[in-house]
Amino acid sequence: MTGDKDGPRDEMRPGTSDQSAVAAPPAYVEERTVTDLETLRVLADPLRLAIIGAFPSDAGRRRPMSVKEIAERIDEGQTKLYRHVKKLEDVGLIYVAETRVVSGIIEKRYLPAQKRLLFSGTLLGQQAEPDDFTDTFEALMDAVRDKLRTEIRAGRVQLTPPPDGPDLTPQIGSIRVNMTLERYLKLQAAVLDLIDNIGPSDEGPDTFPVQLHAVLFPSSEPPDSELE
User: Fold this and answer.
1) Where are the alpha helices (DSSP H) in 75-174?
2) What is the pLDDT of residues 203-223, one digit of tens each?
3) Percent of the chain, pLDDT > 70?
4) Which of 35, 101, 164, 173 is 20 to 30 A removed from 118 (C-alpha atoms)?
5) Using CA atoms, how far apart are residues 118 and 153, in angstroms rounded to an integer?
6) Is 184 helix (H, G, I), strand (E, B) or coil?
7) How many domains does the chain have?
8) What is the maximum alpha-carbon separation in the chain?
């Protein structure tokens, strides 16, 4: 920790100077591309990614949440989250959507400023440290792992196909093949199209949450024939 102390800094008593410091909320965007190292480094933490992920991606179900409500949603200690929420607010990934008075204290309630995040390829050329990008990638993978573990332990993920009915077990796969540039670009477009068209959420009592996490990347590794 670098000088920040955990504590409810987003809650204050009426009349303090911080009460008028809440800026106008930024415009909500469907997609935000991270182009600066500061934001990239803020995201290099699974807990901060979990905070962003605590908000439903569907605008119809998204509502402002306090730090206490976020903590309950991701099953973390409330005091532990204040510093991380402040970091996310500082780089504009979340914002104060509204305030309310609870037991004489002004409580801030937050919303994400974007539906989904992408990472600009130009970040690689900006790296002051070679691990900047890989730290964030590892945090993303850790967040996926932690979320899946939590859902499995809570009994919310089907692990065994039923004798009758649809198979709702997790679908996990990994493959490495050699491709031409033309074929790779077609696959890349198909993956991006799948991600773009997965929303919005369906409505109704028979719906359930579904998550998709995709990683696709080419590398400069030699062809398999050269490895033999």
Assistant:
1) 78-90, 123-126, 132-153
2) 788 888 888 888 888 888 665
3) 77
4) 173
5) 30
6) helix
7) 1
8) 72
CB distance 5 to 84 below 8 Å: no
Q: What is the CATH number of the domain that holds 156?
A: 1.10.10.10
Measured CA distances, 63 to 8, 19, 36, 47 (Å): 21, 22, 28, 20
d(CA 99, CA 106): 6
**Does residue 42 lie within any of the structural domains?**
yes
| Tens of pLDDT, residues 27-46 | 678 888 888 888 988 998 98
Element (H, E) at 106: strand 105-112
Residue 195 lies in a domain: no
Strands (DSSP E) along the chain, which ranges? 11-12, 29-34, 94-102, 105-112, 114-119
Q: Which domain holds residue 23?
A: 1-160
Strand partners, 126: none
Phi, psi dihedral angles at 146 (to 5 degrees):
-65, -40
CB 15 within 8 A of CB 106: no
Examine residue 221 and state whether it is found in any structural domain, yes or no: no
Which residues, listed in sequence order, are joined to residue 99 by a DSSP beta bridge?
A: 108
Query: Is 171 inside any structural domain?
Result: no
> How many CB atoms sit inside 10 A of residue 223's CB?
8
Which of 189, 221, 40 has its CA nearest to residue 125? 40
**How far, in Å, CA of 136 to CA of 41, rounded?**
7
